[in-house]
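The aim of this short unit is practical: by the end, you should be able to scan a pair of folded records and say something sensible about each. We start with the first protein, listed as its amino acid sequence and then its structure tokens.
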Amino acid sequence: MNSALIEAVLLAWPPVVLILFRAVGPRRAVLVGLLGGLLFLPPGRAMLGPPGFAFPVDKWNVTGLALLLGVLIFDRRSLLRARPRWLDLPMAAYYLAPLIGLATGVPGSAADILDLMIGRGLGWVVPYIMGRIYFAQGDGPATIVVALTFAGLAYVPVCVYEEIVGPAGYLAGLIYGIPYSEGQVDRLGGWRPEGFLGSGLVLAAWMATTAVMATWLWLGGWRPGKWPGWLPAAALVAASLSCRGVYGYILLAIGLGSALLTRWFRTRAVLVALAVPPVVYMGLRGSGLWDGGLLVRGASLLGRPGTVAWRLQAEDQLIRRVIDRDPAFGFGNYVWHSEGLLWPDGSWLHALWLGGLVGLSLWLAALHVVPATLALSKPRGRPDPRQVASPAWALAAWCLLLMIDGMHNTNYFTPTALVAGALIGFSCSKSTGEYTTREAGRTRPGQRSGVPVSLIVTVILLAGVEILGRSRKAAGPPAPPSSPPPAPASSPRN
């Protein structure tokens, strides 16, 4: 692993974002800085500082710091005009929850709690504030949905390239020397790409959710310049299918189905129903009322019972340890490495370990349930065909889909915090919520129409990716990496 290059790239990102604040304005700089940092910064971590006091620097920390500095230097007025509302309490409580560890005597030290709060603040709270400041009015939700769609399109060439060349040419390995996830890239007759997200599972979830956003835009009448609105959706759906992630396929099917049913029946009930499975699952598994055996039997039909069984075993270990330690407030920091536990895959398990039932409830409320509920509360009564295509409803689907994915996978998609802040602010504003996706596609004065080059590249490359990928695979697997893959390293300390 090229630690020096990783450190240099991470430290170069804040100056780049500051230049963007000056050159293109705060709103676009926030979107490019947040999405670009998530998708293209290295998934490694650099330790800065003297021995014994080194602080971990990762893509989430530097991106949050860059956005915060950009606002403080170039747009303090917007920050000063922002007024906290009572609906911001879930996020505030989620951020402050680690302080409970000082009173409950969690293992570790005050420095561990400080590290957790810094990571959580920069990784989640700063994007949330950006959403509250810049995307709570008028076209804010529509702008975020369009940005997520283009961010997905920007990653399609990465997916296509890695599916063709295989693990020996994965970009994180070629550029930074970061080994691929051994044993997790050979899937469904081809190679599963990883990009700079550290895992093929995470990448599959990203492509699936952005495909749902593009489909929502298309159903709402959006047109990217002179191109048909269905083209970005079709490209992202095809790219998502090519990522060979079963969990990604599940997310894609649920997301596309909910978008179509919501549109056809003009009802929010379908999206409301998405919140039920993860809450029921967490309740049944956390209470020990269900052993999850049905999931293992279902996975055996796909030939992957071991994967689900391993996840359930990790869940059982972690849940049992939290209940023995403190079911209300958990452990307060990451100490399971010394506890000899399996790495838990589900995002909800991280929240449960760190904060117990209180921390899990705050995580669900701040990033998923409350923002989605507020978005779906407008308009009152049954929506008309124009209102049912609301971009705010699309963002509600984003929050709920990632909550579903968090049942068995860990996705550190910090744009979810931006979405949550925008939806909270949108509900507090005087906006009628009637800004549509069709209006989001209109070219405004001083803007150029058209679509990114990645869309054109997508159309050209997707046609031959399966043939080339299979022929590459037929040549035999590449040699395994010389060093074992790193443990799940950097995160915005969930």
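Turning to the second protein, read its sequence before its tokens, just as you did above.
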Amino acid sequence: MTIHWIGDSTVQYNDITTWPQQGMGQALGLYLQPGVMVEDHARNGRSTVSFRAEGYWQAAAARLRPGDLLLIQFGHNDEKADSPGGYADPAQYAQNLAAYAGEAQAAGALPVLVTPLTRRRFDPDGRLQHSHGPYPEACRRAARSAGAPCIDLTDASRRLVEALGDARSRALYMVLPAGVYPAWPDGLEDNTHLRAAGAAAFAGLVAAGLWRLGGAYRAPLLPLPDLYAAPPERWPIL
């Protein structure tokens, strides 16, 4: 079995040139049985529209084999109304997700829709702001339409980030001091993209979702039932 990811920059594989940035796709292997392969097809800045329009979906779909898992996480870029060629309103976003899932099913693969990862945006009173507006619910609706399972990463990641609070959650995202990382000499305040700790934590929440689905979705995972049973706000790997 191979696990395939399609999605955006929160999933994309990063190399040393952008260290310490990582995507969830490259951290999922921490939770997998030996021999399970991950193919990360995600690309920076892509939406459900542009991922297909630019040929990335066609290349990924050609790699699918019967019994493979396909994890699908978009939303960050679909919601950008000022992005020509990328924007999809919630209804179109749901249709696009359902189309990806349906085409994967036709190839014999098992698609799993994943609602978009929360952004780290706290208000002056220390409350985490809601991310992505109607798009998480549109993703859930697409899963129902396609007859595919859905992992609610929006909710799980929000609960984790809220529990950590403003200060501690900085370690999950690309919030960097100046003069430490060669790729970011001036530092960075990026509350969307992830560093290694965030990629590992949020990929773990996805793994927990797969574990709860059971059957073929659970089969590739390391047998860590106590870890997967932990509520997101008490995720024990941090």
